[in-house]
């Protein structure tokens, strides 16, 4: 049973490896694609899906700083800090969340001391599309008092009262230029990850479980055979020969100093 569970876990890791390779192929294709208008890339459904992740899109609109959200507990290149997400209002009445950049945390501050102001008027952004972040059962994607932990389009739309795209855009280039206080973001990690080696480990554990079962089963069988052998029995592979049988009637355990079964002295 243990070996079967290990085999299934190994197969699951290989399945995850296949999924990762497929996702990497899509990411490479999206990174190589030329910039295109946001509406053209995403389509009328306005949902950034797996097929759009890391695709370069362009969009023009006006920032609404009154509905800006500070993302807490963010890390970029192993540095803790904050990300500033501001809705960009589009001409058709919809809006898209724009991650304007990263602000490193100074000391133990719980919020950035200053946030660069948004440009006034119309801005044009070229950036990478990202899917909405989801944290399972946590509510970190819902802004509370202007802060959140995750960037989630539907949750932000409900909290901010906007018709938002499901997904967001990180800034690569902005016209007018973005504030230099903002730090950029690294690109995606495109590798196979540890899944293949995890699969090998699970298969190795399965072999250990099978080997242990065989070993202890044989040990139990040998133990039963030893217990079943009579005292003084000698195997066929050597050892002392049994003593020659004494002549006369077999000793049945009656000695001269014991009473005979018929009540006599034990002597005939």
From TrEMBL:
PROSITE patterns per the UniProt record, alphabetical:
SURF1
Basic and acidic residues bias (residue ranges): 252-261
- Kindly give the membrane topology term recorded for this protein: Multi-pass membrane protein
- Which keywords does this Swiss-Prot/TrEMBL entry list? Cell membrane, Membrane, Transmembrane, Transmembrane helix
Region annotated Disordered sits at 225-268
Locations listed in the record: Cell membrane; Membrane
Compositional bias, Low complexity, is annotated for 239-250
Q: Which residues cross the membrane?
A: 196-216
Instruction: Please indicate if the UniProt record lists Transferase as a keyword.
Output: no
Q: What does the similarity note say?
A: Belongs to the SURF1 family.
Write down what this protein is called: SURF1-like protein
Naturally occurring in which organism (per UniProt): Kribbella sancticallisti
């Amino acid at each position: 049973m243990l070996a079967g569970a290990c085999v299934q876990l190994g197969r699951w890791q290989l399945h995850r490896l296949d999924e990762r390779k497929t996702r990497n192929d899509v990411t490479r294709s999206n990174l190589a694609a030329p910039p295109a208008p946001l509406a053209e890339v995403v389509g009328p459904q306005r949902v950034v899906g797996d097929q759009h992740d890391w695709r370069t899109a362009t969009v023009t609109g006006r920032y609404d700083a009154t509905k800006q959200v500070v993302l807490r507990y963010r890390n970029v290149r192993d540095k803790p800090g904050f990300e500033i997400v501001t809705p960009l209002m589009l001409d058709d009445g919809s809006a898209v969340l724009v991650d304007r950049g990263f602000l490193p945390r100074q000391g133990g501050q719980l919020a950035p001391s200053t946030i660069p102001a948004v440009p006034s008027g119309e801005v044009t952004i070229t950036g990478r599309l990202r899917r909405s972040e989801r944290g399972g059962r946590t509510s970190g994607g819902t802004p509370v008092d202007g802060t959140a932990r995750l960037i989630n389009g539907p949750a932000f739309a409900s909290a901010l009262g906007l018709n938002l795209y499901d997904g967001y855009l990180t800034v690569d280039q902005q016209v007018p230029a973005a504030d230099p206080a903002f730090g950029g973001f690294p690109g995606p990690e495109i590798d196979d990850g540890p899944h293949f080696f995890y699969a090998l480990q699970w298969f190795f554990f399965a072999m250990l479980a099978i080997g242990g079962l065989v070993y202890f089963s044989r040990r139990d069988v040998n133990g039963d055979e030893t217990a079943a052998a009579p005292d003084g029995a000698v195997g066929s592979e050597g050892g002392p020969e049994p003593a020659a049988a004494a002549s006369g009637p077999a000793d049945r355990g009656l000695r001269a100093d014991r009473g005979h079964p018929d009540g006599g002295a034990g002597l005939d």
